Amino acid sequence: MKWLLLFEIVYVAIVILVVLRVLYDTRSGVKALAYILFIVLVPFFGMFFYFSFGINYRKSKLYSRKIVEDEVLNQIILTHIQNYSEQVLNSGLLSSEYLNLARFIRNSSTSPLTGNNSVKLLINGEEKFPTLLEALESATSHIHLEYYIYENDETGNSIVDVLIKKARQGVEVRFMYDDFGSRGLNRHFIRKLEENGIETVPFYKIKWYALVNRLNYRNHRKIIVIDGKKSFIGGINISDRYRNDTQPKNSLYWRDTHLMIDGPATFFLQYLFLCDWNFSAKSKLQFGSDYFPMFPEESEIRDELVQIVSSGPDSKLPVIFYSLLEAIGSAKERVLITSPYFIPGESLMDALIIAAKSGVIIKLLIPGVSDSMIVNSAARSYYTDLLKHGIRVFEYQKGFVHSKAMIIDDNLAVVGSANMDYRSFDLNFEVNAMLYSKTITKQLQEAFNNDLKHSREINSTDWLNRPKYIHLFEKLVRLLAPIL
Q: How many Cα atoms occupy the beta-carbon half-sphere of 118 within 13 Å?
């Protein structure tokens, strides 16, 4: 009995110390409360989970390691970014309501506002992959590819065939894949690339002695840069599942959005690739005209205006999250949001409610069919508050909507890799494109309205009248929302 009492005293003392650690180390009060409840209510495993997933190891390791390797590159491009951004900002092409947003992004992540871009909207894999293969065939200098999920299937191998062909023609080809998201790539697949002259590297390779910590920080970006001029960005990974025209009729329909950019906006995507490559690979890449051939010192600024937004464990601020808050705050007429994982947290909910109460029309489109019941339940726990304040919620019924897009009025749109959840805002390496463009915004509005035709609007009365046990389950899952 004495040993049992001693054990209980020691355990309680440890729990108190861990709770204090959570309070001091976790910036978000909601997230801290979730961890504390988990630690108290789930003995031992709660503490294990926190030390595995909750501690911000990036402050002392991941961030400092990466910034040292990128310091020279940062200094070289800083002058170019400042001069060109000011030139575009002073051109008069950017609407005054977005000046603060553009300056915030530039000052927080050194990403320039760029003009003279040609942007093509790509709906689903059946539009993206043929366009991508054609663009890859045109490469003459280099191809840089960085993906969260790359699968060894028909789609993946069709791209590999072109990569090998271009490498044999003397084009530099670099292939970077997330070590968790692309865990299906075996050694034979990678060896095939390397034997044909393609440099490969896994991003933040998972090692057994740091397994859980490394699993927590993943590269969720989908980037391809061709000759430093043309680039691809969005939500579509390299996999057969994203292409509906080649899948069996009974397969899950996959709805997603991607962009092809031809112009100076490619500059910052190239920069991100170099940063991620230098962090992961032994061979380091340097700033040079071969990789940045079209970044203008001075030129006549024209549409389309595009600004790349990135954030992750290497950024001092959650730039993507803040940029979305600023964009919502700038809305005068409408905000249209599509997200496969919607766990917004207090700040984003407040921004949406403030906009709705100011007379802004807000429509939210999320999956009716999801690849995660827990995440979907957590998202649904927010419906009551959204509906109460006049925000319209739609669930996509045709298949799984994986698109990450936001439309503000008629002049601003966001397309990228970031979901509207804690993981994308705080843990993953993510990248979005801010499109200050009437043309692309109109096209995205048309796509959104078409998606609504295949969606079911949530009726407030029916939603509140669902069985109490469903409401309870969703509220319980919501407690874990910050750590999903």
A: 3
Q: Token digits for 299?
A: 């030129």
Place of tokens 């993981």: 423
DSSP 251: S
| CA–CA distances in Å: residue 74 to residues 66, 105, 113, 289, 402 | 12, 16, 17, 15, 33
Alpha carbons 227 and 213: distance in angstroms, whole number? 35
DSSP 227: T
CA nearest to 383, candidates 369, 394, 396: 394
For residues 203 and 177, the answer to whether their CB atoms sit within 8 Å is yes
Residue 154 contacts residue 125 (beta carbons within 8 Å): no
262, 276, 409, 426: the catalytic one is 409
Of these residues, 178, 179, 227, 262, which one is catalytic?
A: 227
pLDDT, tens digit (0-9, with 9 covering 90-100), for 118-144:
999 999 999 999 999 999 999 999 999
Rounded alpha-carbon distances, angstroms, from residue 306 to 59, 262, 268, 436: 30, 11, 11, 6
What confidence tens digit (pLDDT) does each residue in 388-440 have?
Answer: 999 999 999 999 999 999 999 999 999 999 999 888 988 899 999 999 999 99
Task: Please say if the pLDDT value at position 451 is more than 90.
Answer: yes
> Buried (b) or exposed (e) across 205-237, using 16+ Cβ within 10 A?
ebeeeeeebbebbbbbbbbbbbbbbbbbbbbbb
227 carries an active-site annotation: yes
